[in-house]
Amino acid sequence: MTKPNLDKIKEIAGGTASFEQEMISIIKEELPAELEQYQFHLEQNNFKQTAESVHKLKHKISILNMEEAYATAAAYENELRAENPTSAPAFKKIIDELNAFVKKL
């Protein structure tokens, strides 16, 4: 699986260090709240809201260049909408890895 990295952020920033730092700051600020929201809805077995949380997290997965993980997240989002979240363990690994990476930034 693709490990999270800053390659896509650097590409988008186009060498502008301040913009790169701003994007990183936004991710660091938003990710904990999004993960908390995801966990809350998951524990409540609220499939629709959990799917919405996964949808938001997909953006972080994408911007941190985790292509394979993005595909897993998209499949998981669809499973949640169908109330059959079989990819939950795989998604948990993704968000754990994502969270650990962001904490080190």
How would you describe this structure to a colleague?
The chain is mainly alpha-helical. The protein has a single domain (7-104), classed as Up-down Bundle (Four Helix Bundle (Hemerythrin (Met), subunit A)), CATH 1.20.120. 79% of the residues lie in helices and 0% in strands. It has 5 helices and no strands. Helix 2 (17-43) packs antiparallel against helix 3 (47-63) and helix 3 (47-63) packs antiparallel against helix 4. The longest helix has 27 residues, at 17-43. The two termini are 20 Å apart. The mean pLDDT is 96. This is Hpt domain-containing protein. Residues 16-105 form the HPt domain.
Query: Radius of gyration from the CA trace?
Result: 14 Å
Mean pLDDT: 96
Q: What is the number of beta strands?
A: 0
Instruction: Tell me the number of helical segments per DSSP (H or I, 4 or more residues long).
Output: 5
For this structure, the CATH topology is Four Helix Bundle (Hemerythrin (Met), subunit A)
Tell me the major beta sheet. none
What proportion of the residues form beta strands (DSSP E)? under 5%
SSE string, helix = H, strand = E?
HHHHH
Count of structural domains: 1
CATH class: Mainly Alpha
CATH architecture: Up-down Bundle
Oligomer state of the chains in this structure? single chain
Using the alpha-carbon principal axes, give the shape.
elongated
Helical content, roughly?
over 70%
Cα(first) to Cα(last) distance is: 20 Å
Unreliable spans: none
Class based on secondary structure composition and strand pairing = mainly alpha
